[in-house]
């Protein structure tokens, strides 16, 4: 079973000095081109959970994917040392790294190439904190997306997910967005694994853009307002519940 693990290599803003922050306020933002990068706390938690399961299930094949520049190569080799069988770097500049839809399209494209049945992401990045990417990928692929995941276990053809408020069992394929809870910690590879990973292959691909289809506007109309309320009439609460089920809930159930 193929699992696609995606992470964002974020610059360590804590390494900026006070003078650099003051200069950034005048320039419209800090210069992060020379800072080292690392995965976010959410992604590190997700990687630790995945690696713990690979030890007991050799059928799980892990692929690490990130968008960025050559600074991310260090972490891809780090994941190679930990046991990720495939590493992919999609070379992108900072403008596209902050475009959730573009990032989501790259992830959806790689899912088709690698035939992944499970996509694991973080919930938020420390840079953008928009939290849109996993939902956009889910919409593009037509997969369910579970957020606020604190733990999970892969039990093909299902994934058992522990969220902050519930525990559920979902049939694959699926996308899960992990949030950091303080544990477990990502393992540290030994020197022998690091030396072997230094020569490991990393797939480097350019950012892929899909040509937008040409469309012609025929007419426009105002969409209905969001949050419209439909009143359900009934003599008793039981009758109202039956109407709710028959007219609104039952047609949405996946058979």
TrEMBL record:
Q: Which InterPro entries match?
A: ETF_a/b_N, ETF_b, Rossmann-like_a/b/a_fold
Q: Name one Pfam family in it.
A: ETF
Entry keyword Chloroplast? no
Q: Where is the Electron transfer flavoprotein alpha/beta-subunit N-terminal domain?
A: 27-213
Listed A to Z, the keywords are: Electron transport, Transport
At the top level of its lineage, which domain of life is listed? Bacteria
Q: Which family does it belong to?
A: Belongs to the ETF beta-subunit/FixA family.
Identify this protein by name.
Electron transfer flavoprotein beta subunit
């Amino acid at each position: 079973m193929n699992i696609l693990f995606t992470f964002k290599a974020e610059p360590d803003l804590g390494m900026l000095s006070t003078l650099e922050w003051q200069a950034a306020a005048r320039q419209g933002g800090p210069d992060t081109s020379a800072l080292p990068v690392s995965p976010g706390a959410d992604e590190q938690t997700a990687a630790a959970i995945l690696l713990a399961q690979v030890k007991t299930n050799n059928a799980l094949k892990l692929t690490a994917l990130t968008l960025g520049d050559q600074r991310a190569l260090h972490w891809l080799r780090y994941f190679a040392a930990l046991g990720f069988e495939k590493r992919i770097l999609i070379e992108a500049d900072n403008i596209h790294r902050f475009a959730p839809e573009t990032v989501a399209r790259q992830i959806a494209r790689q899912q088709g190439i690698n035939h992944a049945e499970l996509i694991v992401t973080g919930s938020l990045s420390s840079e953008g904190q928009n939290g849109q990417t996993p939902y956009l990928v889910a919409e593009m692929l037509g997969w369910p997306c579970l957020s606020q995941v604190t733990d999970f276990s892969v039990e093909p053809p299902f994934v058992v997910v522990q969220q902050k408020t519930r525990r559920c069992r979902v049939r694959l394929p699926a996308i899960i967005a992990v949030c950091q809870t303080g544990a477990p910690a990502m393992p540290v590879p030994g020197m022998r694994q690091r030396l072997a990973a230094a020569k490991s292959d990393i797939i480097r691909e350019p950012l892929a853009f899909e040509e937008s289809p040409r469309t012609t506007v025929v007419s426009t109309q105002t969409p209905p307002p969001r949050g419209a309320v439909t009143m359900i009439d009934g003599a008793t609460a039981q009758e109202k519940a039956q109407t709710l089920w028959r007219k609104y809930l039952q047609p949405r159930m996946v058979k």
